[in-house]
TrEMBL record:
Keywords: Aminotransferase, Lyase, Pyridoxal phosphate, Transferase
Residue stretches in coiled coil: none
Record family assignment: Belongs to the group II decarboxylase family. Sphingosine-1-phosphate lyase subfamily.
GO molecular function, one term: transaminase activity
Name assigned to this protein: Aminotransferase class V-fold PLP-dependent enzyme
Gene3D superfamilies: Aspartate Aminotransferase, domain 1, Type I PLP-dependent aspartate aminotransferase-like (Major domain)
PANTHER family: PTHR42735, SPHINGOSINE-1-PHOSPHATE LYASE 1
Cofactor: pyridoxal 5'-phosphate
Length: 468
């Protein structure tokens, strides 16, 4: 047994560190060792339970109702109900599915999204046959434009979407104005607070000025908030809230017309582990309101300080002033952000490259965890050094003929051999080993149109995921 565990630990050596504050995307670290230990023990305690049927595991019902009540209180939903899901994507998928199924008379439903909405809405569009109508955001602020959103609504619109805040830029859309647009037309309005929903209420409680974004705004019908981000719980937990039980009804699925048990599901999963739910409950109880208020303030202050420090680095700037705990950084023409990201990795820090998009420059995303705050000076020094090094090296040059070719390729016409060749050119080879430096790969992807980026990445994943 110890031998097998040792092998797991050895395999983990190649992973990004989940704790210690040096990873600024994917993982969120409270820095509270006791909360982590509690989460681990709760996971172990509940690993074999099944949330398929809350009548036979009544403890899971209690835990879920407790967590939903907590979130409803935070997000000012007087009569709100909700569901604990496996993550932000599942919460969003369910919000879209529910809106679609609440309007069975609309044969070809659509939803209106700002261009900054999370990719999960496009996944929902793909899965559920809901057309995504994408609306440009304000060029200067990266926020949704209520007039343009209103103009995009029509008789087929089943959902309007906004973010609090957006993942890529960390800005909060004008929720009251957008809610008015949706409710004037009787359309559901989802606020994606996956990453901000456990931060903004605590910042507000701590005296930070926070524009209304939750159920206090009339017309907001559902909100998603992830526990496995800024509630610092183990992975696999998010909440989807609906303003009323009536609005939630179409989310539920039952099937009695087969020979087995009557299936009754609130989520996309049927058999589901109670472990992430129990762990989330335990961590939330342990950290508590005061703890979250402190953690939110710590991360927010560190984010603002980082933004100021980045602005002071020659050649670096923020895309938008942070409103929560996220910041996006861009570089001027002397360096490319992909090289900066590689230089950060070389210095022990992970920041997340974001490709250029609709005229917006490529950038680096940083999600600030509370555990990073005590190491902020170190992070800033690494950033200074990484930028200087990237400027000395100069931006990665993509051969102009390659960039031209990338624009002309129709991915629908490529076969497996063609993808093999393209992946080789992109430096992603057979997928067996990843390149040390990702900048050349990212620079090449960056000149490709989104459809080609997607096709290449899928081809890459397809080759990566083969049994050994
Ligand atoms: C993280 C995130 C999501 C998706 O959540 P997952 O837990 O990764 O599925 C959706 N929206 C926003 C704004 C997010 O930050």
């Amino acid at each position: 047994m110890t031998d097998v565990l040792a092998r797991l630990r050895a395999l983990q050596q190649g992973d990004l560190p989940t704790h210690g504050g040096s990873t600024l995307a994917y993982v969120y670290d409270s820095g509270l060792a006791e909360a982590d230990e509690l989460g681990r023990q709760a996971l172990a305690l509940y690993g074999a339970t099944n949330g398929l049927d809350p009548t036979v595991f009544p403890s899971l019902r209690t835990l879920e109702n407790d967590l939903v009540a907590w979130a409803a209180r935070l997000l000012q939903g007087g009569e709100a109900v909700g569901t604990v899901t496996s993550g932000g994507t599942e919460s969003i998928l369910l919000a879209v599915q529910t809106a679609r199924d609440a309007a069975p008379g609309i044969a070809q439903p659509s939803m209106v999204l700002p261009s900054t909405a999370h990719a999960a809405f496009h996944k929902a569009a793909h899965y559920f046959g809901v057309r995504a109508v994408v609306v440009e955001v304000d060029e200067a602020t990266y926020k949704a434009d209520p007039d343009a959103m209103a103009a995009a609504c029509d008789d087929t619109t089943v959902l309007v979407v906004a973010s609090a805040p957006s993942y890529a830029h960390g800005v909060v859309d004008p929720i009251p104005e957008l809610a008015a647009v949706a409710s004037a037309r009787g359309i559901r309005f989802h606020v994606d607070a996956c990453i901000g929903g456990w931060v903004l209420p605590y910042l507000r409680a701590g005296g930070v000025e926070v524009a209304p974004f939750d159920f206090v705004v009339p017309g907001v019908t559902s909100i998603s908030v992830d526990l496995h981000k800024y509630a610092y719980t183990p992975k696999g937990a998010s909440i989807l809230l609906h303003r009323t039980a009536g609005l939630r009804r179409p989310q539920y699925f039952a099937h009695a017309d087969w020979p087995g048990y009557t299936m009754l599901n609130s989520t996309m999963q049927s058999t589901k582990s109670g472990a992430p739910l129990a762990a989330a409950w335990a961590v939330v109880q342990h950290i508590g309101d005061e703890g979250y208020q402190r953690l939110a303030r710590t991360s927010y202050d560190a984010t603002l300080r980082l933004a100021d420090a980045a602005e002071a680095i020659d050649g670096l700037s923020v895309l938008a002033r942070p409103e929560t705990t996220l910041v996006a950084l861009r570089s001027d023409e002397r360096a490319d952000v992909f090289t900066i990201a590689d230089e950060m990795v070389a210095r022990g820090w992970f920041v997340q490259p974001q490709l250029s998009f609709r005229g917006q420059p490529a950038s680096l995303h940083l999600s600030m965890s509370a555990a990073t705050a005590p190491r902020l000076d170190e992070l800033i020094a690494a950033l200074q050094a990484a930028v200087a090094q990237a400027q000395a090296a100069g931006p990665v040059q993509v051969a102009p003929e390659l960039a031209e070719a990338a624009k002309a390729i129709d991915p629908a016409l490529l076969d497996d051999a063609a993808f093999d060749g393209l992946l080789e050119i992109a430096g992603l080879g057979s997928g067996e080993t990843l390149p040390d430096r990702m900048a050349p790969v990212n620079a090449l992807l960056d000149v490709a149109p989104p459809r080609l980026r997607e096709a290449l990445l899928i081809a890459f994943l397809d080759r990566l995921m083969r049994p050994s």
